[in-house]
Amino acid sequence: MPVPFDEAGHGETALEIDHPRLRPDVGLEVTIAAQGDDAITAGRERARLGPGWIDGDDLAIPEDEVGGRNRWPTGEGKKAQQGPGPDGPHLKSTHGRQWYVRPSQVEIGAVTMVGPDVFPPRPLARPHRYNPGPSLGSPTARPSLVSSLMNPFDLTIRHGTVVTAIDSFRADVGIRGGRVAAIEETLPPGIEDVDARDQLVLPGGVDSHCHIEQLSSFGIRCADDFHSATVSAAFGGTTTVIPFCAQHRGDALPVVLADYAERARTKAVIDYGFHLIVANPDERTLATDLPDAIGQGLRSFKIFMTYERTMLRDEQILDVLAVARRHGALVMVHAENHGMISWLAGRMTGSGRTAPRYHAICHTRGSEAEAINRVIALAELADCPILVVHVSTPEGIQLIREARGRGLKVFAETCPQYLFLTARDIDRPGVQGAAFCCSPPPRDEAAQEACWQGLKDGTLTVYSSDHAPYRMDAAGKLPNGEQTTFKEMANGVPGLELRLPLLFTYGVGAGRISLNEFVALGAAKHAQTYGCFPQKGTIAVGSDADIAIWDPLREVRITSELVHDNTGYTPYEGRTLHGWPVLVFSRGRRVVEDGKMLGQPGQGRFVARGLSEAMRPAGRHVSEIAQLEAWGRPLDG
Ligand code: URP
Ligand code: ZN
Ligand code: ZN
């Protein structure tokens, strides 16, 4: 039912949102839909923090959103924090709000808590008395209770706190046929019921950067196959992985693709997509094989600016960008300057400096920054979106931030190793530091802080594991045993399983990010960016029932025995994490319960991905290309 407003629309009309949980110290997000032609043109937000009022920013709803929905973000600078912090329950919240708007009428949609304000979860009324319409402001359509009773859910997850990238609310989730069929305050019993009281019901994680059963740029096969890797992912609350089909020089793409598809088909216990690694952008690859692969739902390619076996020249990078632009795909870039690294490495090894710590010396910050700067320029020339993977430096993050500030579609990723490790971890006796060698290498505390900031302000779009698993033996990182030089060590660290628990502890638990941001960074943004949202990455009616139930208070001490991948070690050995996924569903089927794997090899399905907004070119030509277009000689012609 619409809320009436001052007919004349003069002046400001106060709409008080009297949410049952409204407290001065708790933030709310409210969706509002406008009725009428030019209903909401501007609004004014006021926020209450303690006694009195604080003026918020002026709000303006773009014309094309009038009649639709809009969401105003939590106001900045009005946050309150309480509680003991990383080692225990905490409460991070913002403020109660009133909106002053000037439309003829508006409808108030979902009013939801902002941030992890409940540890353990407390009830959150939804729908509430300000949500009169069935669909407004809610990701769910109302289910018919009659039909639910006649056709019960296969599974009902009851009494939990459902968290998506934008909402947190107390609700039951009904699952039928592997999909979410209903989300309501109370649902009738399903054929099976799960009690999620005091627990968090989260979308299963999506890990969009991991190497599984892959032939690496060093020519070494990863330690994990599609079974061990997906088992490990599931134990850590991840239910979709997007690893790589890796083309090497001389490889025909369709052959590579068929090989990886077959390996995954018979072994994966959770769903998976594929990116391509393009190392051989010959005419056939560019003209036929890449477009065909895109048509099959492989809508992202990784290219390398370093590594002898896989790196592309600038002209080749432009070729790949042009194909991605034309056919709708996202190009992921490993951005490090090859020459800078190999020049330094030659001098190090030439003078007998071969220990793992020299790996971190050779992969300088400047080599990352140079390559990021260059690939941004290439992407701008081609007018093609890119996503810079495993960004590790403040300098690199700043370049990406500036590019985005100029309107370029430059997305980026960081990984656990850049938030939770430093170069000191590599500096160990003998070759032990090899366990922490990845490219780019972990840096220092200031770089960690820059990565957190980048995640917080959206410069870094996704948080992925870059799981690159190699054992500490002759088949993996140490081909020459104790004599192995840092140049011979396979690059990469494992991280599929601990990616989310680490972020939960050091991100949510430490008050750095909200629960909603946790879901966004660990699941939703991956699915959105890579073209499988809302099938994956959220809990909404119609989404795949990929759900991880987290116990926010579960304490787990990390040991290599606990982790299920095949590397035999974890870089996070000995840490105690708070918050753990205790029950994990893949398309409604239990895959992890009570520390046991219930998923079967081969039950995971291939996820064909579609065009995402991230993949759409900005449509901005550099001036020379614009001139060329004006002369009627477009590059694509
Ligand atoms: O060191 C890393 N990251 N190894 C995996 C391959 C890659 O570059 O992503
Ligand atoms: Zn890489
Ligand atoms: Zn990688």
Structure description:
This protein has 14 helices and 29 strands. With 637 residues, the chain is an alpha/beta fold. The structure holds N-(aminocarbonyl)-beta-alanine and zinc ion (2 copies).
Entry keywords:
single chain; 7-stranded parallel beta sheet; 23% strand; 9-stranded mixed beta sheet; 25% helix; 29 strands; binds zinc ion; alpha/beta; disordered N terminus; binds N-(aminocarbonyl)-beta-alanine; 637 residues; globular
**What is the helix fraction of residues, given as a range?**
25-40%
pLDDT averaged over residues: 82
Tally of alpha and pi helices? 14
Bound molecules: N-(aminocarbonyl)-beta-alanine, zinc ion
- Rounded to the nearest angstrom, the distance between the terminal CA atoms is 54 Å
How many DSSP E strands?
A: 29
Query: Which structural class matches the secondary elements?
Result: alpha/beta
Radius of gyration: 25 Å
Low-confidence stretches: 1-144
Strand content: 15-25%
Largest sheet: 9 strands, mixed
Shape: globular
